[in-house]
């Protein structure tokens, strides 16, 4: 029988799940419960060609996972017979000590809970997801796969903040990097797609989803990435600011008398393209720019321009970090779907060896594809990310 891994990704008000067969790469079912804890939650499960959904109150993550299993049953699935061998959990922050995919026991749960201050939006709900799933499926191994893992061995020059060394050591302050599962998966897929050895490729991966990060990868090993101690640093994101002058935090605390928690919430949830342009969905942002009335259209335009400007700065930086860049790959929701973002990110870079083909870039194709011009020294790709499959593969690798 095919081995199947249940992959769980818990957010504060959402829970995503996916049943993946790592050997074939097939995802046999996926589901999502959103707005957990609100009056009207939305749950949806897809299995084969059947989709079942429900709108009802889902009080907590416990109820969400239970409901997901119910809907999977309703869609004709049977958890007992799919060949479940493990449950894989996406954990965002592993801190200094947790980075390899790790079989979860009480000590790992306690450690992940301790790391909450480093990823306050991500780690606590993920830990809740782990606890709920361990209670519900006690006989299966549960395995944590960390977003920080791929970047664990970043060169010291890229991982270190230029600040008081002893203080940084005491509080484990370094650049950890995130979306590592995606950066690793996509860079490996790029090598496979181009039929070239991974260890001979210098790559830039642009993971542009709601969260967004860039990485520079030399011969399969990351040499820089845009996210840091937390997933707030770097590119402009859906609702996160990315790079800001740290002086802004002190200024708001001192002068606007804002509490640290309020500043953090503002930079995490009310910044980025949403904070500037009123929406974090790029489809809506384009609609506003093209057809909105003023001042909304202008706000959306500025948000877009700031987003593109930052993205181009990181691409330029990583071209310099790598020296000779063979591949640039776009991935995740925006990177895979938004041809305009891809074009605006790379326009005018021919003198740096990067030239996209307008026609290929506009192609509605969904799979892995080349979008650079034939004569472009750097190949530009679009590759769909699949963090669930990567997590499932990491799980079976741990099991041996
Ligand atoms: P995450 O996993 O970080 O939640 P995704 O990688 O799923 O995010 O990306 C979600 C984002 O992708 C949306 O907020 C939206 O901005 C963008 N997106 C999705 N589909 C499209 C599309 N067809 N065109 C442009 N942007 C899109």
Automatic annotation (TrEMBL):
Its EC number is 2.7.2.1. It catalyses: acetate + ATP = acetyl phosphate + ADP. PROSITE patterns: ACETATE_KINASE_1 (PS01075), ACETATE_KINASE_2 (PS01076). Keywords: ATP-binding, Cytoplasm, Kinase, Magnesium, Metal-binding, Nucleotide-binding, Transferase. The record marks 179, 240 as: Transition state stabilizer. The keyword Oxidoreductase does not apply. Mg(2+) binds at residues 9, 387. GO terms for molecular function: acetate kinase activity; ATP binding; magnesium ion binding. It is found in: Cytoplasm. One of its GO terms (biological process) is acetyl-CoA biosynthetic process. Gene3D superfamilies: 3.30.420.40. Transmembrane segments: none annotated. SUPFAM superfamilies: Actin-like ATPase domain (SSF53067). One of its GO terms (cellular component) is cytoplasm. ATP binds at residues 16, 207-211, 281-283, 333-337. Its cofactor is Mg(2+); Mn(2+). The keyword Magnesium applies. It holds the Pfam family Acetate_kinase. Belongs to the acetokinase family. Homodimer. Catalyzes the formation of acetyl phosphate from acetate and ATP. Can also catalyze the reverse reaction. This is Acetate kinase.
């Amino acid at each position: 029988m095919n081995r199947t891994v249940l992959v769980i990704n818990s957010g504060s008000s959402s829970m995503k799940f996916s049943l993946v067969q790592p050997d074939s790469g097939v995802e046999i079912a996926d589901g999502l419960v959103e707005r957990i804890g609100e009056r009207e939650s939305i749950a949806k499960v897809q299995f084969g060609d059947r989709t079942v959904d429900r709108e009802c109150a889902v009080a907590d993550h416990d109820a969400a996972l239970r409901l997901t299993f119910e809907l999977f049953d309703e869609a004709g699935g049977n958890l007992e017979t799919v060949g479940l061998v493990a449950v894989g959990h996406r954990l965002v922050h592993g801190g200094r000590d947790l980075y390899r995919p790790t079989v979860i026991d009480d000590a790992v749960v306690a450690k992940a809970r301790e790391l909450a201050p480093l990823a306050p939006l991500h780690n606590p709900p993920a830990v809740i997801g782990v606890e709920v799933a361990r209670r519900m499926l006690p006989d299966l191994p549960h395995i944590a796969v960390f977003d920080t893992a791929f970047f664990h061995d970043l060169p010291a020059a890229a991982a270190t903040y230029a600040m008081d060394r002893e203080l940084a050591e005491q509080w484990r302050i370094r650049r950890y990097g995130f979306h590592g599962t995606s950066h690793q998966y996509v860079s490996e897929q790029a090598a496979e797609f181009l039929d070239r050895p991974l260890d001979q490729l210098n790559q830039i991966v642009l993971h542009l989803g709601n969260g967004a990060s860039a990485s520079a990868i030399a011969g399969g090993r990351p040499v820089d990435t845009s996210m840091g101690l937390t997933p707030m640093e770097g590119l402009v994101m859906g609702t996160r600011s990315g790079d800001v002058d740290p002086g802004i935090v002190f200024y708001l605390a001192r002068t606007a008398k804002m509490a640290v928690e309020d500043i953090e919430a503002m930079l995490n949830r009310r910044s980025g393209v949403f904070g500037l342009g009123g929406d974090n969905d790029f489809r809506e942002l384009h609609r506003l720019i093209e057809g909105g009335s003023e001042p909304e259209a202008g706000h959306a335009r500025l948000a877009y321009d700031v987003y593109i400007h930052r993205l181009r700065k990181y691409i330029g930086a990583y071209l310099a970090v790598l020296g000779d860049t063979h591949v640039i790959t776009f991935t995740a929701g925006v990177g895979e779907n938004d041809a305009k973002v891809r074009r605006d990110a790379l326009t005018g870079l021919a003198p740096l060896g990067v030239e996209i083909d307008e026609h290929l870039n506009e192609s509605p194709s969904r799979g892995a594809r080349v979008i650079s011009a034939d004569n472009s020294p750097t190949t530009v790709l679009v590759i769909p990310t699949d963090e669930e499959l990567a997590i499932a593969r990491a799980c079976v690798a741990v099991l041996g």
